[in-house]
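Continuing from the previous page of notes. For each protein in this section, the sequence appears first, followed by its structure tokens. Read the first protein now.
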Amino acid sequence: MNVSAFSIVGNDKLCGGIKALELPACPTQGERKKLFPRKVIILVTSITLSTILLIACVSAVFYLIKRSKRKSSMDCPLGSQYPTLSYAELQHATNGFSSANLIGAGSYGSVYKGILNSGEQIVAVKVFKLQLLGANKSFLAECEALRNIRHRNLVNIITSCSSMDFKGNDFNALVFEFMPNGSLESWLHPTQSVQQDPKSLDLIQRLNIAIDVASALDYLHHHCETAIIHCDLKPSNVLLDNELCAHVGDFGLSRFLGAARGKTNRLQSSSSIGIRGTIGYVAPGNVLSHNYCIIIYISFWYILYDT
């Protein structure tokens, strides 16, 4: 055979043939079947992973943009007339929400002592435990109540904060004027740590506190644009200032009496539904008569003498 009559230039895929052509051996049928699917699998896998990664990145960007817009519109749920505070500012004011600054704890949050404006203003920061069911509703209910009320015997709200912490978790807090004498509960039932220097209230002080609380309730029930029922009145929710003047706080379970009283006497709830308040202090929230205030006043009078 005259091999010089053949030319294989440009045919690098040729294989087999006679030895004189010196072509590479052709793969067997099993090797061909094995080789083709492997390339396809690698190609399909690469395309799939790239597509998933692209979709995830786009979704994350849209999510962050949406969340940022939502948070920017909720920096201060109380309203634009209140100052804006960030999570970082509150974290710094409370020394990282240190346990040394913890001054109280409730069902939905903890209260920390904080210092704002380079030590010029002492505040109480109520941080809500949003991982608990109902905590966010309690925060919104308290904001709704506090933005509509002003009275010398109610807690003085400074501002609120609805943002994210450094880990990207939702963060809600309320900032109040600090009450140096703590709660009425700490005076009526001091803890073991203060038994050596017990607090006490004389008759006149107790009477003044009862009058302060009665004045606050009278304002909430009869002098607000929309009547508000507190629903959780108890000694731990009554705070005392330097002069032992009482201030009612914690409106997380508050209810608003429907403005259209001619149509309905139904209580419009701003938080959870069902029994409200603390066991032992549950107020008759469904009693919608003028005797309601009297019942609360008399009940609280007995609480003042419960030592």
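Done with the first. The second protein uses the same format. Note its length before scrolling.
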Amino acid sequence: MVDNARDRSQPPCSPSDLEEALSVLEGRWKILVLFHLFSNGIMRFSELRRALPGVSQKMLTQQLRELEKEGVVFRTIHAEVPPRVEYSLTTRGGDLLPVLQALQTWAVQRKS
């Protein structure tokens, strides 16, 4: 049963606000990147690439840049030879955890 009562402590969300929020997660790989960063904390680019078979280097770079631009992912570049680049979630990215956990629960439940 769905509870349609609105949580009065939360401000109302307009359809355009929701559309804008969802656009942050648009893209085939972004949600999977977030799941891996939630699970592992900090990951190097090469680790993310191995964790996502089928993603090209160009596409992963693009998706990570978009997440970084939106303030969801933080990129750290270590001045080494060769350079080491690590990705982690920002506070804003961490705020997505309950949403992604609910999505994961839903994905499991729909299989049964």
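What the second structure shows: The domain at 29-111 is CATH 1.10.10.10 (Arc Repressor Mutant, subunit A). The helical segments are 15-25, 30-40, 45-51, 57-69, 91-94, 97-111. We return to this in next week's lecture.
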